[in-house]
Design goal:
Mean pLDDT: 86
Number of helices: 1
CATH topology: Immunoglobulin-like
Strand content: 35-45%
Order of helices and strands: HEEEEEEEEEEE
Number of domains: 1
């Protein structure tokens, strides 16, 4: 083996390692918290959180029985991604409805709802949601909170489900027993 072919072999191995490392880093979806959140108009900030806990916004006895809001997220990866909502892991009798929107963080503009949103590196995404007891009875004094959404993120044809944490927890609580509406009797 000549000196020239050895250097070619070493150079090829180094290039292969660098391409592999770049793909390993580039294929891992990184969805970070965006700069904006919209809280329910009836919400109040929970004041009994510890300093190191995530802040919480709560609706007590919501007039429409749900917490309605919006979280924004950002593609912190180096490659463009396609995002869609993944299966939500909340108890099935609770109401959870969410929609994806493209989000221009620079101009604070939320786009039209879509099943999928394509994000360039640094691109923004908004998730509008409605969350509440739905057809589940809730005892007086019970507080239920959530602070994340599951997203299916596709990078170079590989889809991974990631849990995107919001900047703030959202919660609903009832001062009296919540009895599901009669329309819930028809579901089943």
């Amino acid at each position: 083996m000549t000196r020239r072919s050895r250097w070619g072999l070493v150079g090829g191995a180094v290039a292969l390692v660098l391409v592999g490392a770049w793909l390993a880093v580039g294929l891992v979806p990184r969805i970070g918290v965006g700069a904006f959140a919209q809280l329910d108009l009836e919400s109040v900030d929970a004041e009994d959180t510890w300093p190191d806990e995530v802040p919480m916004s709560m609706v007590v006895d919501p007039s429409d029985s749900t917490y309605d809001g919006m979280w924004t997220f950002q593609n912190e990866g180096v490659l463009p991604v396609t995002v869609r909502l993944a299966e939500h892991e909340k108890p099935s009798d609770l109401h959870w409805e969410a929609l994806l929107h493209p989000y221009d963080e620079r101009h604070n503009v939320v786009g039209k709802a879509s099943d999928t949103v394509m994000l360039a590196a640094g691109g923004g995404l908004a998730v509008t949601f409605s969350w509440g007891p739905g057809c589940a009875p809730v005892a007086a004094g019970t507080t239920m909170s959530t602070g994340s959404v599951r997203l299916a993120v596709t990078t170079l044809g590989l889809t991974r489900v990631v849990t995107a944490d919001a900047r703030e927890l959202v919660a609903f609580s009832h001062t009296e027993d919540f009895v599901p509406p009669s329309a819930c009797d028809d579901v089943g």
